[in-house]
């Protein structure tokens, strides 16, 4: 049975499913074998970069 956290919610479907934390070192070690098969686009997507914040605007500002 999955553990859930209702966090004040009334219905079971509103709850958040609690999952165990991943052992970071074990995950990184397991991914080492796969990294050589990633494309340049996938490698770029997996790196940390600057944070971007998006906001809604009624005015069409064109493409960014």
Q: What is the helix fraction of residues, given as a range?
A: 25-40%
Q: Total number of helical segments?
A: 2
Order of adjacent strands in the largest pleated sheet = 1-2
Instruction: Briefly note the structural class of the backbone.
Output: mainly alpha
Number of separate domains: 1
Strand content: 5-15%
Features:
64 residues, mainly alpha, two-stranded antiparallel ribbon, 2 helices, 2 strands
Topology diagram in text:
Layout: E1 4-5, E2 16-17, H1 24-35, H2 40-45
Antiparallel strand pairs: 1-2
Structural commentary:
The structure is a single chain. With 64 residues, this protein is mainly α. The protein has one domain (1-64). It has helices spanning 24-35, 40-45, and strands at 4-5, 16-17. The protein has a two-stranded antiparallel sheet with strand order 1-2. The termini are far apart. 0% of the residues are buried. The mean pLDDT is 90.
Summarize the structure.
This protein is mainly alpha-helical.
């Amino acid at each position: 049975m999955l553990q859930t956290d209702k966090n004040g919610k009334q219905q079971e479907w509103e709850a958040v499913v609690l999952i165990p934390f991943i052992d970071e070192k074990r995950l990184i070690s397991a991914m080492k074998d796969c990294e050589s098969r990633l494309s340049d686009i996938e490698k770029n997507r997996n790196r940390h970069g600057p944070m971007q914040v998006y906001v809604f605007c009624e005015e069409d500002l064109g493409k960014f």
